[in-house]
């Protein structure tokens, strides 16, 4: 099989004139393109669920750019009810809104696959006292205890409520990535104590139970799971577990230096174990740092270029599709990273690269036209952004804030030699200030305040057009408020020192 992969991707040594002309035009030759059945855009909704009015604008754009599906990760934004009501965030969608999301998706030929975490990343469930007893390790709410019958009951309820609102779904993604501390709980330690069974066996046992429930209760629905917890298991272990007949693994790697040979070999390994339908997962944003606020397009473009190299080595029919992930948090407790509108230029570049099998100046120009961008820089962060795509004002304002407000304010507070040399924390605490330095400090402070007021009012209003108030509040408090408060405190300390006559307090 590995031999087939390597041979299947070899380009002819001699390229035809037609192929050369296509390459010059920025288009891949037909045999160089990769045909995925489904190209999914991942919507990570935790903490920043877009309003339906915004999704109604975005979905047709995604379809035009080359997507034909959505991988929707609701987490606490799903309208759970009954025993699961504690999981439902105040800003969660209503059942009617979920149905409208599905209607909008169908109207634009976007197949919806819901994603439910069922093992790792269960913080939004296990943080609640009602479910805390189901933790693998009592102190940590990230992983579910696979030994308790109540754990499976909980998952069956979650799956049932999600499928109730997604009756037409052909797939269900059951998460299962990064099951940290698996095997560290007291019950798991006993289960593993004889040395015969391994953590991989423990993971596969739970995965099989969940997948079996899905396929038995929802005939025709296929199960997808993240693959990282499968990677270390041997071919024999995976084959004998029987999960290959129940699950389609989704191999994820978001790095720009993705190892093509290694990922090709991993696909081969899964195929040998009986996984005959395999998914890939890239990233268009949300994979370069938990506090990242702007998207470096080149990082994600290179990730997709590598995945295309992998896909070209795989014989037709094995790859089911590819999901472009777009994380808005690294986990339930982390801060917001790039918001969806911020990542749209990167998403457009990546979708078009997948559609054409390459990226070129011509494709860059088509992305610029589709998004109304004055220019597109994939190698650097763009300090000036103008566009007319949905949410372009949010990207413009966040970019302006970071480049022309936050950074200058931070530089003034931390690096200005007058502030640090003549009005340091020691000086400010004791009202020590050389009068002549007031002329050096005060004009800067005065000039900053109207800029802050103007930009933050516009940005908050733009965020509220797309997201619930809690998202706007979080973004402002995390990214802007710390610097504004420091500036405000500096102004107050300056006034206090002036009122005290600038004399040292003994």
Please render the helix and strand layout as text:
Layout: H1 2-8, H2 17-24, E1 38-44, H3 52-65, E2 69-73, H4 95-107, E3 111-115, H5 123-126, H6 149-165, E4 171-173, H7 186-192, H8 199-217, E5 222-226, H9 235-241, E6 247-252, H10 260-272, E7 278-285, H11 297-313, E8 319-326, H12 340-356, H13 361-371, H14 392-415, H15 417-422, H16 425-429, H17 435-464, H18 469-479, H19 481-499
Parallel strand pairs: 1-2, 1-8, 2-3, 4-5, 5-6, 6-7, 7-8
In short:
The chain is an alpha/beta fold and 506 residues long. It has helices at 2-8, 17-24, 52-65, 95-107, 123-126, 149-165, 186-192, 199-217, 235-241, 260-272, 297-313, 340-356, 361-371, 392-415, 417-422, 425-429, 435-464, 469-479, 481-499; strands at residues 38-44, 69-73, 111-115, 171-173, 222-226, 247-252, 278-285, 319-326. Strands 3-2-1-8-7-6-5-4 form an 8-stranded parallel β-sheet.
What does this structure look like?
With about 500 residues, the protein is α/β, with parallel strands linked by helices. The protein folds into two domains: about 350 residues, Alpha-Beta Barrel (TIM Barrel), CATH 3.20.20.80; about 100 residues. Strands 3-2-1-8-7-6-5-4 form an eight-stranded parallel beta sheet. Strand 2, helix 4 and strand 3 form a beta-alpha-beta unit. Helix 10 packs across helix 11, helix 11 runs parallel beside helix 12 and helix 17 runs antiparallel to helix 19. It is globular and about 80 Å long.
């Amino acid at each position: 099989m590995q031999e087939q992969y390597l041979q299947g991707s070899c380009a002819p040594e001699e390229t035809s004139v037609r192929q050369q002309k296509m390459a010059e035009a920025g288009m891949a030759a037909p045999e160089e393109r990769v045909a995925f059945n489904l190209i999914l855009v991942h919507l990570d909704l935790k903490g920043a669920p877009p309003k339906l009015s915004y999704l109604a604008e975005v979905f047709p754009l995604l379809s035009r750019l080359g997507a034909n599906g959505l991988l929707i990760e609701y987490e606490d934004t799903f309208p759970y009810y009954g025993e699961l009501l504690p999981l439902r965030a105040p800003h969660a969608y209503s059942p009617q809104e979920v149905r409208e999301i599905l209607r909008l998706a169908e109207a634009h030929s976007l197949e919806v696959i819901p994603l439910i975490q069922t093992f790792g990343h269960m913080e939004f469930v296990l943080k609640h006292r009602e479910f805390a007893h189901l933790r693998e390790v009592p102190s940590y709410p990230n992983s579910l205890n696979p030994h308790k019958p109540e754990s499976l009951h909980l998952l069956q309820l979650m799956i049932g409520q999600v499928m109730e609102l997604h009756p037409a779904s052909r797939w269900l993604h059951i998460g299962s990535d990064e099951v940290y501390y698996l095997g560290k709980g007291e019950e798991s330690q006993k289960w593993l104590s004889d040395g015969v069974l391994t953590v991989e066996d423990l993971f596969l046992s739970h995965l099989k139970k969940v997948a079996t429930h899905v396929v038995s209760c929802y005939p025709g629905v296929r199960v997808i799971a993240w693959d990282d917890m499968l990677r270390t298991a041997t071919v024999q272990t995976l084959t004998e577990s029987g999960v290959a007949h129940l699950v389609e693994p989704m191999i994820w790697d978001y790095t720009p230096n993705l190892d093509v040979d290694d990922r090709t070999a991993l696909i081969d390994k899964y195929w040998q174990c009986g996984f005959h339908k395999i998914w890939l997962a890239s990233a268009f944003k949300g994979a370069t740092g938990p506090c990242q606020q702007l998207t470096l397009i080149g990082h994600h473009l290179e990730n997709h270029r590598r995945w295309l190299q992998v896909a070209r080595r795989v014989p037709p029919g094995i790859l089911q599709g590819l999901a472009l992930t777009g994380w808005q948090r690294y986990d339930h407790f982390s801060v917001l990273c790039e918001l969806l509108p911020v990542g749209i230029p990167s998403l457009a570049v990546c979708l078009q690269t997948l559609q054409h099998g390459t990226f070129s100046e011509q494709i860059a120009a088509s992305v610029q036209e589709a998004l109304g961008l004055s220019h597109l820089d994939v190698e650097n962060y763009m300090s000036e952004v103008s566009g007319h795509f949905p949410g372009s004002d949010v990207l413009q304002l966040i970019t302006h804030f970071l480049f022309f407000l936050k950074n200058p304010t931070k530089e003034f507070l931390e690096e200005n030699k007058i502030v640090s040399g003549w009005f340091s924390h020691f000086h400010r605490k004791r009202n020590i200030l050389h009068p002549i330095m007031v002329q050096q400090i005060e004009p800067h402070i005065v000039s900053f305040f109207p800029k802050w007021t103007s930009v933050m009012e516009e940005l908050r209003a733009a965020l509220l057009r797309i997201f619930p108030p809690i998202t706007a509040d979080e973004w402002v408090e995390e990214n802007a408020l710390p610097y504004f408060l420091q500036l405000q405190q500096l102004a107050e300390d300056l006034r206090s020192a002036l009122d005290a006559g600038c004399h040292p307090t003994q």
